[in-house]
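S1.2 Input.
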Amino acid sequence: MSQDTAFEPVFQKLKNLLQPYQEQLSVQEDQPGIYSLETVSRSFRGRPLFFGSAQVKKNYVSFYLMPVYVFPDLLVDLPSSLKKRMQGKSCFNFKHLEEIPLADLEDFIRLGFERYQQEGLL
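S1.3 Output.
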């Protein structure tokens, strides 16, 4: 089994967490191993603003959430379950389904989306 197929369940779960937002955001990319959302409005220098993405990498699946980069104060109450998965300023890495703290990640995505709304970025 290749890494791409080994990570497919993880990728699919992370993609599923982002999909509820695709109605108010825009799907930037949706192909095997990558799913990405951005704002519909041209809210950043006349261009859409990246929101989030799930991407299969060589050794894990990366989950990016741009609101935490744009608004670092969102990280103040970051649950420890996500903190230990954090790589960089807005990226979380997962290898196995059981590593994904679903409720914490769902809440965190919602907070990021709400912050984009509050700031008029959607």
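S1.4 Remarks. The CA atoms of residues 59 and 122 lie 33 Å apart.
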